[in-house]
């Protein structure tokens, strides 16, 4: 992995994992230089002042270590050059201070990117060669040769360290992606579990309530057949019980129909809605047309399921209340928006009056919880229009 110019090494990266170690090392190193300086007089005031200033500069590095690097620009480079300048001034005064390179090099490569570090180290190497040749009479060729060798060695070691850090960054990125993938899988399993729970509940309703209602009707019909014709009042009670049981059976079947996941889940949303309409027309004899506008695209499974549930609930409501002879279902694909309109030509109703059922209200709540809009338009004698809009993108969630 190639490091970018503004790579920001965060707390989980290699250098900062040993931040305190580098700080302690630097000050121990400086303490050793102080001891050597003290036992090698003379101690000129200007040298002491320069050294104290350099120590203040070194302490100031703590500020830069806790500041986001991408907000610094070249400010940190300038600060490093100030430290290098102070070091050069100290080295001109006393040869002992050349040894402070042992503190400067780790700080430069620890805090700067490789390109900026190479700039600062080049200035440091040239400055060292000038001082060695001019102040301490080292032959110019030897001074510049040593400086060039030291510069090349420093960059090689620094680049090697950056490659190690780069591998750490790459591993961290992979771990982050793995964590995100695991979270997505958990969410997917949770959604799949919700669909499976609805399927299980629908099956239990069918196997318990529906069968019980069927048994009640069977027994009531048998009792009615065995009654004496003179027991008309008892016959009335039995007929009422039979009627209530039949209504309960029908309601249970309808509720199971609206709750079960679509049988054709492998089909695109528009195809599965057409399938739902075909089955509903065959079972109830009411004409239903399904229209698709825009270029279809795949959306997340939970939103496809939500649209299917909306259609089923609307059709159930039409069957129970609308007295309609025609229904139009329109699915519209737009940029980052999918809209569903269910229109019937039934008797309509006054939308200002409180709703008596809970099915449509529950669907409206589900749509709004998904970040969408639910609207109902109707008037007595004008049918009903139910409009659902959910801002989603391809394979995406609600925006």
H/E topology pattern: HHHHHHHHHEHEEHEE
Termini Cα gap: 33 Å
Query: With helices defined by DSSP (H or I, 4 residues minimum), what is the helix count?
Result: 11
Number of strands: 5
Summarize the main sheet.
5 strands, mixed
Low-pLDDT stretches: 1-15
Classify the secondary structure makeup into a structural class. alpha+beta
Shape: rod-shaped
Search tags:
399 residues, Heat Shock Protein 90, 2 domains, 5 strands, 65% helix, disordered N terminus
Could you explain how this protein is built, in words?
With about 400 residues, the protein is an alpha+beta fold. It folds into 2 domains: about 15-180; about 265-399, Histidine kinase-like ATPase, C-terminal domain (Heat Shock Protein 90, 2-Layer Sandwich). Helix content is about 65%, strand content about 10%. It has helices at about 15, 20-40, 45-65, 75-95, 100-110, 115-135, 140-225, 230-260, 270-285, 300-320, 360-370, and strands at about 285-295, 325-335, 335-345, 375-380, 385-390. α10 (about 300-320) links the parallel β1 and β2. α10 (about 300-320) packs antiparallel against α11 (about 360-370). The longest helix is centred in the middle third of the chain and has 87 residues, at about 140-225. Residues about 1-15 have low confidence and may be disordered.
């Amino acid at each position: 992995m190639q490091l970018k110019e503004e790579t920001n090494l965060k707390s989980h990266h290699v250098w900062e994992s040993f931040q305190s170690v580098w700080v302690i090392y630097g000050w121990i190193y400086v303490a050793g230089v102080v001891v050597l300086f003290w036992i090698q007089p003379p101690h000129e005031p200007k040298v002491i002042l320069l050294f104290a200033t350099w120590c203040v500069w070194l302490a100031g590095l703590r500020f830069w270590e806790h500041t986001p690097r991408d907000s610094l620009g070249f400010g940190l480079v300038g600060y490093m050059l100030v430290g290098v300048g102070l070091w050069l001034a100290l080295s001109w005064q006393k040869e002992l201070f050349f040894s402070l390179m042992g503190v400067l090099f780790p700080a430069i490569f620890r805090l700067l990117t490789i390109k900026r570090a190479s700039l600062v180290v080049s200035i440091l190497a040239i400055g060292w060669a000038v001082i060695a040749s001019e102040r301490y009479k080292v032959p110019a060729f030897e001074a510049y040769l040593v400086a060039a060798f030291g510069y090349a060695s420093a960059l090689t070691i620094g680049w090697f360290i950056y490659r190690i850090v780069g591998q750490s960054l790459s591993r961290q990125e992979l771990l982050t992606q793995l964590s995100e993938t695991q979270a997505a899988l958990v969410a997917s399993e949770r959604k799949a579990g919700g669909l499976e729970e609805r399927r299980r509940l629908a099956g239990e309703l069918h196997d318990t309530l529906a069968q019980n209602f069927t048994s009640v009707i069977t027994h009531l019909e048998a009792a009615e057949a065995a009654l004496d014709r003179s027991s008309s009042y008892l016959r009335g009670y039995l007929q009422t019980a039979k009627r209530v049981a039949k209504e309960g059976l029908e309601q249970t079947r309808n509720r199971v129909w609206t709750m079960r996941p679509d049988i054709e889940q492998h089909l695109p949303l528009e195809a599965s809605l057409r399938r739902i309409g075909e089955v509903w027309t065959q079972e109830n004899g009411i004409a239903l047309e399904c229209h698709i506008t825009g270029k279809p695209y795949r959306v997340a499974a939970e939103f496809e399921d939500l649209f299917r549930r909306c259609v089923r609930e609307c059709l159930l409501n039409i069957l129970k209340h609308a007295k309609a002879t025609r229904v139009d279902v329109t699915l519209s694909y737009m940029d980052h928006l999918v809209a569903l309109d269910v229109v019937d030509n039934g008797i309509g109703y006054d939308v200002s009056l409180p709703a008596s059922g809970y099915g449509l209200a529950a669907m409206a709540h589900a749509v709004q919880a998904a970040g969408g809009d639910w609207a109902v338009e109707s008037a007595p004698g004008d049918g009903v229009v139910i409009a659902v809009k959910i801002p989603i993108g391809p394979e995406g969630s609600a925006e």
